[in-house]
């Protein structure tokens, strides 16, 4: 009984550590998946999830339920000015997804899980308004760093 009492805290620490690590690994995989899927829809200039939402809002709602309130989905065009309207096929689109995760809620300990994907634009649906309103970087729900 004494040996069990000495080993139990260490064993429980290992088990809880494995569970926390598994959860963080799942969130990292999910953020990368959401970034890749959103980038794919941005490069073909489509929003398959509904006409009333931006691509950023759609990406947040398609992710894990825990992401919907806290995730930041940011779409930008490295080296290009979206406002100038000079986005063309072949230009890069970068999608970044960030989710703050607290793994010990009582103490407020946590990390920010980040995922990103960069792809090249394949298609622009309307030349007069390139990539609007699907991947407007000014419609980001929250800012990404």
Structural features, described:
The protein is α+β, with helices and mostly antiparallel strands. It has one domain (2-139). Helix content is 34%, strand content 21%. The chain contains two helices and three strands. The protein has helices spanning 2-43, 55-62; strands at residues 72-76, 92-104, 109-120. The chain has a three-stranded antiparallel beta sheet. Strand 2 (92-104) and strand 3 form a beta hairpin. Helix 1 (2-43) runs antiparallel to helix 2 (55-62). The protein is elongated. The termini are far apart.
Summed up, what is this model?
With 145 residues, this protein is an alpha+beta fold.
Task: Kindly estimate the percentage of residues that lie in beta strands according to DSSP.
Answer: 15-25%
Distance between the termini: 52 Å
Percent of residues in helices: 25-40%
Query: What's the domain count?
Result: 1
Shape: elongated
Overall radius of gyration: 20 Å
Write out the strand line-up for the largest beta sheet, numbering strands in chain order. Answer: 1-2-3
Low-confidence stretches: 129-134
Structural class: alpha+beta
The main β sheet shows up as: 3 strands, antiparallel
């Amino acid at each position: 009984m004494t040996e069990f009492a000495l080993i139990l805290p260490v064993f429980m620490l290992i088990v809880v550590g494995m569970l926390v690590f598994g959860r963080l690994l799942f969130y990292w995989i999910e953020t990368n998946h959401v970034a890749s899927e959103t980038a794919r829809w941005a490069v073909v200039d489509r929003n398959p999830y509904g006409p009333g939402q931006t691509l950023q809002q759609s990406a947040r709602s398609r992710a894990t339920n825990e992401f919907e309130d806290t995730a930041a989905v940011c779409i930008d065009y490295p080296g290009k000015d979206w406002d100038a309207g000079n986005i063309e096929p072949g230009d890069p689109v970068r999608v970044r997804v960030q989710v703050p995760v607290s793994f010990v809620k009582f103490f407020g300990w946590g990390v920010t899980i980040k995922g990103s994907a960069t792809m090249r634009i394949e298609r622009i649906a309307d030349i007069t308004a390139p990539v609007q309103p699907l991947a407007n970087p000014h419609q980001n729900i929250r800012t990404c760093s």
